[in-house]
Amino acid sequence: MADSPLSRAIRWSALKRWDSAVGATLIVVLLLSFTTVDGFGNALNLSFLIGNTLPIALVALPMTLLVVSGEIDLSVASTAGLSGAVMGALWNQGLTIEAIIPICLLLGVVCGLINGLLVTRLGLSSLAVTIGTLAAYRGIAQIVLGSDAVTDFPTQYLDFAAGRIGDSFVPQAFIPFLVLLVIAVIALHATPFGRSLFAIGASEEAARFTGIRVKRQKLILFTVTGLMASLTGIFWALHYASARYDNATGLELSVIAAVLLGGIDFDGGKGTLGGAIAGVFLLGTLQNVMSLQDVSAQSQIVVTGVLLVLSVLGPRVAKQIALARAGRPSGPDPVAKTG
User: Who contacts 117 (Cβ-Cβ below 8 Å, separation ≥6)?
Assistant: First the structure.
C-alpha cells in the first residue's frame, strides 16, 4: 500500500532531521576524540582512520543508490575478496599490475551483472540472491588462491594505497575517492537517473507507469556495485599489502550499517549521499577510537551490529514522533481514492 503524500512528506522530514543528527554526532564524536583520546589527533592516526574507512566508503557509494532504489547487495565483500584473490593469483602467474587491474574490474562487473540479472530478469529477491552469491563468490576466491597470501606487489602501488600526501594526514587514495563521491552525488541528486531511483524506491509500480525502465536501472546499479566492490578489493589488497581469499570479510555489515546509520531508508525512496558518508565516517571514527582504547575486534563487531539495529530503528522512531506531532495515527495510511 502506497504512502499518502502527507505521510511521505513526514517521513522525508524525519529522515532529513536524522541526517542532520548524524552529521552533528560525527562532529561531536570527533571533538571528543581529539580532546580525550590519546593519540587520536596525530597525523599518522588520522591517516589510518581515513585509510581504513575508505573501503567502507567506496562500497557505500553504489550501495546508497541501490538501497534508495529498494534493493540491497550483500555480496560486495565477497566480490572484493574474489577480486583480491584473482589479483594475487594473476600476479603469481607473472602478469603486470597494469594488466591485472582491468581484469579484476571486469570480474567485478560480471559479478554485479549476475546479481542484477537474477534480480531483474528472474524476479528474485535481492536479499536472497546476494546471500547466495556472497557464499559462492567467497568460495570461488578460496578455490582461486587457496590459503596463500600474496604480498610482493610493486612498491609504487603499495605506497599510493597506504601513503599520505606529504606530511599531512590525508591519504593519497582519498583524492580519487573524492572524485568518485562527487560523481555519485551528481548522479543521485542532480540527474534524471538519480530521480528515477527515488521514484523506483518510493513505488516501483508507479515508476513503471511513468515510463521509467525499472529493470534496466536496477541492472545498472547492481553492475556498478560489483565494479566498485572489485575496485575496493584491489585497494584492500594494496592498502594492507596482502591478497588473500578472505580479504574484506564482514565488510558488507559495516557498509550497510553505515549507510542506514546515515539515514538511507531501508524501504527505499529516501536518503542522501551526504548522510550516508557521514554515517560511514562516524562508524570509522568509532572503530578507530575503539582500536586506540584496545577494544577487541569481537567487541567492535558487537558495536557495529548494535549500530545497524539502531540505524534501522532510529529513523522509524523519528517518523513516529513526527506523525504524532502532526496529529495522525502511525499505522498504515487509508487507501486513497483513485480514478
Answer: 219
Give me the residue label for grid cell 556498478.
224
Query: What is d(CA 218, CA 197) in angstroms, rounded to the nearest whole number?
Result: 8
260: CB partners within 8 A, 6+ apart: 67, 266, 279, 308, 311, 312
Whole-angstrom Cα distance, residue 14 to residue 290?
30
Q: CA–CA separation, 30 vs 179, rounded Å? A: 24
Domain ranges of the chain: 5-325
What pLDDT was estimated at residue 3? 54
- pTM for the model: 0.88
Domain 5-325, CATH? 1.10.3470
Instruction: Tell me the per-residue pLDDT of 62-103, one tens digit each, with 9 for 90 and over.
Output: 999 999 999 999 999 999 999 999 999 999 999 999 999 999
Interacting residues of 57 by C-beta distance below 8 A, sequence separation 6+: 177, 181, 277, 280, 281, 284
Q: Evaluate if residue 54 carries a pLDDT over 50.
A: yes
User: What's the chain's length in residues?
Assistant: 339
DSSP H helices in the chain: 5-36, 43-68, 76-92, 97-120, 126-145, 155-162, 174-189, 192-202, 204-209, 214-239, 251-261, 273-292, 297-325
Q: What local confidence, expressed as pLDDT, does residue 120 receive?
A: 96
Distance CA 275, CA 188 (A): 13
Strand partners, 140: none
3-state secondary structure 258-317: HHHHCCCCCCCCCCCHHHHHHHHHHHHHHHHHHHHCCCCHHHHHHHHHHHHHHHHHHHHH
